[in-house]
Amino acid sequence: MELHGKRILLGVTGGIAAYKAAELARAFIRQGASVHVAMTEAATHFVGPVTFQALTGQAVYCEQWDTRMPNNMAHIDLTRNVDLALVAPATADFIAKMANGIADDLLSSLILARDCPLMVAPAMNKQMWHAAPTQRNVAQLRADGVAIVGPGVGEQACGEVGAGRMLEPEEILDEVIAFFTPKVLAGKTVLMTAGPTFEAIDPVRGITNLSSGRMGYAVATAARRAGAAVTLVSGPVSLPTPAGVERIDVQSALDMQAAVMARAATADIFIGVAAVADYRVADVAAHKLKKDDGGPPSIQLIENPDILAGVAALPEGPFCVGFAAESRNLEEYAQNKRRKKNVPLIAGNLIQEGFGGDDNRLVLFDEDGTHPLAPASKSVLARQLIEHLAGLMRPVTRPNPRN
């Protein structure tokens, strides 16, 4: 659970997006967080406090003069020992209060008296979002060190379409997890590949594999959460683009190679997770092959370029990480691959232990030997891989023998 042991104060203000805050509270709890909710009076007209109390198992606070606090100071006590205060949804009115230090109800007093970081998820009509006063207030919050997540762009409750809608609960969850993730790759640029490639035989048929792309997308998410700017070159998969990641869609190994090599020289790190086809068809048929064209077609295969080896061979190229999916002899094949391609780190797994699924088992191979990771979800393994990678990149400080 990514938020195990974290205490989050969720502030809910009066907008139609308040219904999303209920699902957001559930998402935090699923990830191991303890959630405490404070609501404005307007918010209670959209979602009742009982809803949040049932979801969180905690008392919900709405009134500044709530006598359930022994010292009658809920506006002080509720943010003590809290890891993050999150206002979601944050209306234009409440953003104005926060930016100008107005504390005329419980939630605004909590925010002003808080002893923890603050994150804000705006939610309002597009004209209200683009209005000059709102933009000034948001700029002031950013200058004050407040994290602003969103807003999203899309259809709004009023029927208009544009910027201003609150991010979906899963998107905000990702931002909160990223907030708590140590920034071991801060300032780094990561270029990576994921998914299968598709090598055409004719306009409708091709050679591909069963890679789902989940491991690669998990690594992209983990790298972004660790502070890196991530570009993901993806083969054909049915996965949403990870938040904050630039995605480039390709089909074939040659397409993937071209996209990677055009960007590799400026990347700090290259991670090749994609299951790239080793071979492609020499002569792709211009039209669909028919069974009555004289029997089974004769297909000649030629070798595809080795993308990982090509990046590793670049002068002053990026730190390279490869993946090895094997059906047997994992350590032998993975270490041979690492040495042959001259890369510092290979992550290996047996295909029968996680190929295409949500969980996996990884073994990391580097110059120091073998580092098995316990079976876990791909998101957990991706985080551990990024931490190991960052450790290998970290300069080693050696003692001065003269001291």
Give the count of helical stretches: 13
Number of strands: 21
Proportion of beta-strand residues = 15-25%
What general outline do the C-alpha atoms trace?
elongated
Mean pLDDT equals 88
Q: What's the CATH topology label of the largest domain?
A: Rossmann fold
Main β sheet profile: 8 strands, mixed
CATH architecture of the largest domain: 3-Layer(aba) Sandwich
Spatial strand order of the main sheet? 12-11-8-13-16-17-19-20
Q: What is the topology?
A:
Elements: E1 7-12, H1 18-30, E2 34-39, H2 49-56, H3 74-77, E3 84-90, H4 92-100, H5 106-112, E4 118-122, H6 126-130, H7 132-143, E5 147-148, E6 152-155, E7 161-165, H8 169-180, E8 189-194, E9 199-200, E10 206-207, H9 214-225, E11 229-234, E12 246-249, H10 253-261, E13 269-272, E14 279-281, E15 301-303, H11 307-312, E16 319-326, H12 330-341, E17 345-350, E18 359-360, E19 363-366, E20 369-372, E21 376-377, H13 378-393
Parallel strand pairs: 1-2, 1-3, 3-4, 4-5, 8-11, 8-13, 11-12, 13-16, 16-17
Antiparallel strand pairs: 6-7, 9-10, 14-15, 17-19, 18-21, 19-20
Helix pairs in contact: 1-2, 1-8, 4-7, 9-13
